[in-house]
Amino acid sequence: MPQIAIACQGGALHAAFTAGALKKILERQPDGQYDIIGLSGTSAGALCAVSVWYGLLTGGPAEAIKTLDGVWTDFAAVTPTERAFNAWLVSSLRMQGYWMSADVRFSPYAPFFPVMLAQLRLAGAREEFVDYTALLEKHIDFEAVSQPGSQPRLLIGAVNVLSGEFKAFDSAVPLPSKPEWSEISADAVRASGAIPALGSRAVAIDGEIYWDGVYSQNPPIRNFLADPETAAAKPDEIWIIQLNPTTRLSEPKTVADIQDRDNELAANLSMEQEKKFIADVNDWVEKGYLPPDKYKTVTVRTLKMSPEVSEPLDYASKLDRSQGFIAELMAHGGQQAELFLKDRG
To answer: How far apart are CA 143 and CA 21, in angstroms?
Structure first.
């Protein structure tokens, strides 16, 4: 069977598409057409990747699908308070984008921010809705899969705030302060999604602080080639689940459209650099510059939304936790994955 690594790009709530695509891929895995040996993700792509990784380790493809469903069901706005807050947030962002209200920004360290979260709890918001760690730990027992070197391998992208260095938290690497544990934890997943502009504080891990991986590797890809010492340990194919469209049909002119396109280009920049690295390595392999026992040609395939779905999506929709929106994107992810697997052969 071909060895496959799946890389999940970050894109906030648009990653519901990724969850739907992954579910379809997992449904087909028992057919014996491919073996998933690696997963990576950034931001909400990391949420999807860690859910699949945990499920595969603890019960196989069916358990991975169950974990994905559980995580995304709880991630959605469920209670009346959550639905009202979600509607207010998304509509406020849209009004700001179309010059209908002031663009108000605040620091996640502002004293009123914890007060707002406390008020949401009192008003009926679930802990999983307001606390990302609570969501993760409800569905993933990190202690049960803490041993370094478990297969499939998992990489989670983040960036060191102070040094600017890229960081890929790695299930194959022991945590320095706790060698019996790998680098994968709820904090690592939370760090990968820590965007200060959206109210997330930096996450401290082993004396370092981290922000969202969109500033570094979105998602980590090159590690699948660079780290394994033998060609046999590297994947035959890397499947990238891309959320941010590469092209747009028209020039962005409103504040909302400009913000949206700026976000897409920034998110795709690191991904394109990762893909360029793989293309260069493939070229060097074909030309005989690299030893065949350590390197091989790796095929990169991209699974993405259809233009009909991606084009109308705006920046505000990336924060839309409504159940209907999540369900629509998950369904589309499954449809696109079906086409992707058919095209593959």
So the answer is: 27
Return the C-alpha torsion angle 90, 92, 93, 98, nearest 10. Answer: 130
H helix count then E strand count, the chain: 12, 10
Tokens, residue 279: 């293309």
Kindly give the residue spans of alpha helices, DSSP state H, lying in the chain.
16-28, 44-58, 61-75, 80-97, 112-123, 127-130, 132-139, 186-192, 223-226, 255-286, 307-310, 323-344
Q: How do residues 73-132 score in pLDDT, each as one tens digit?
A: 999 999 999 999 999 999 888 877 665 545 556 677 777 778 888 999 999 999 999 999
| Per-residue pLDDT tens over the stretch 287-315 | 999 999 999 999 999 999 999 999 889 88
Predicted TM-score (pTM) of the model is: 0.93
Q: Is the peptide bond before 152 cis (omega within 30 degrees of 0)?
A: yes
Q: Residue 345 is encoded by which pair of tokens?
A: 């052969």
Report the length, in residues, of the chain. Answer: 345
Residues 243/18, Cβ–Cβ less than 8 Å:
yes
Cα 345 from Cα 328, distance rounded (Å) = 27
Q: Are 319 and 13 in contact (CB under 8 A)?
A: yes
Report the 10 Å Cβ neighbour count for 95.
15
CA dihedral sign, ordered 38, 139, 25, 329: negative
Within 8 A by CB and 6+ apart from 43, the residues are 10, 11, 12, 15, 157, 192, 193, 195, 212, 213, 214, 218
How crowded is residue 25: how many other Cβ atoms within 10 Å of its Cβ? 26
Structure tokens at 313: 């999506």
Q: For every residue of 83-109, which 3-state class applies, written as one string?
A: HHHHHHHHHHHHHHHCCCCCCCCCCCC
